[in-house]
Amino acid sequence: MKNILSLLLIIICQMGYTQDGIVYYEFTDAIGVGGGNGEIYNAYTMFSKDKSYYVAAKDSLENAVSITKAKSHYQNSSGSKNKISNGLVLSAQGNQVVCNYSTKRLDSNVFDGKQIYMSETLPKFNWKITKQKKKIGSFECILGISNFRGRKYYAWYAPEIAVYSGPWKLNGLPGMILEAYDEGKNVMWNFKSYKFPITVKQDYTIRKEKNSKKVTFLTIDAFKKYCINTIESNYESAIIIAKSHPGMTPVKAPMTSYYIESFE
């Protein structure tokens, strides 16, 4: 009888793992500013045992007030203005990340004036799991720390949700990441709510632009070159403008002031 109950428990657990769930976040983009003083987006990560789908900066996730948000200036700690925002930067597809833990692949896209699509090997995070704990929602969470592409990340994960997923490209902890931020709080994900299970079958693929017949996925090295070239182009444009504006000194900002990932 004891063996039968144990077998039933294993089967129930396995059935649970095959179901989908979803975590909703508040995502703050303060890139180039820091301190969490940035635009706030709605985001979510949908997950199964072996896949996850993340999206933010999607027009259908925001309300009309957010979409028409007025221009605002952000100030850094010294009081000087170093970023101008035109409100939320949205697209129909949003900025997406699909992690496939079975094939060890990651597909993503980002809207940078145009849609840029990328495909890479699933990144490995060397997480240091600490003894720090705190409650997020109804979940007891543990803090993990790791460095990834130019930033140091702090991630609070819930062992109770036994998947390796999280927001954006953050993954690999023994539980769902419910809250995360980099050391300077240039990017932040705060937990809003959790839903499990999702009864409707979910689509774990990148949503492409409407009517696009063919999409080219860049390698991560090609995306790195794209980022470098974009920053160089912006700097060269600033030099040309400065010639007509005496006293203006063009500054080439580091990649961390433009993108979440820095390859410098």
Short summary:
This protein is of the alpha+beta class.
Your description of this structure?
By secondary structure, the protein is of the alpha+beta class. It starts with a helix and ends in a 22-residue tail after the last helix. Residues 4-17 and 70-86 have low confidence and may be disordered. It is globular and about 60 Å long. The chain is 16% helix and 39% strand. The chain has a 12-stranded mixed β-sheet with strand order 9-10-11-12-13-1-2-3-6-7-8-14. It has a two-stranded antiparallel sheet with strand order 4-5. It is built from 3 helices and 14 strands.
Tally of DSSP helical segments: 3
The outline comes out as globular
Low-confidence parts:
4-17, 70-86
H/E series: HEEEHEEEEEEEEEEEH
- Structural class comes to alpha+beta
Q: What topology, given as strand order, has the largest sheet?
A: 9-10-11-12-13-1-2-3-6-7-8-14
**Radius of gyration over alpha carbons?**
20 Å
Q: What is the residue-averaged pLDDT?
A: 85
Strand content: 35-45%
Cα end-to-end separation: 61 Å
Strand tally, please? 14
Largest sheet: 12 strands, mixed
- The proportion of residues forming helix, as a percent range, comes to 10-25%
Describe the structure using short key phrases.
alpha+beta; 16% helix; globular; 14 strands; 264 residues; two-stranded antiparallel sheet; twelve-stranded mixed beta sheet
